[in-house]
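Notes from hallway chat w/ T.B., transcribed later so I don't forget. T.B. wanted the structure written out for a chain they're using in a teaching module, and asked if we could keep both sequence and structure tokens in one place. Agreed to drop them here.
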Amino acid sequence: MANINPVEFFKQVRAETLKVTWPSRPETLITTGLVFAMVVVSAIFFWVVDWGLSQAVRLALGIGS
């Protein structure tokens, strides 16, 4: 491993950071909205699957009315 002094290291970090293409505000808002939408869809899906499996187990074991 090469020894690089801290000043040179931070110069390289700054140079690499300037190469990053940051998303615009609209892109960030759209992506955030899509993430929240997928969380809601996933939560509903897993709730339905959980409910269905619990009903199947209750039916198989004869639990409940």
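Follow-up for T.B.: The longest helix spans residues 25-61. Might be a good example for the class.
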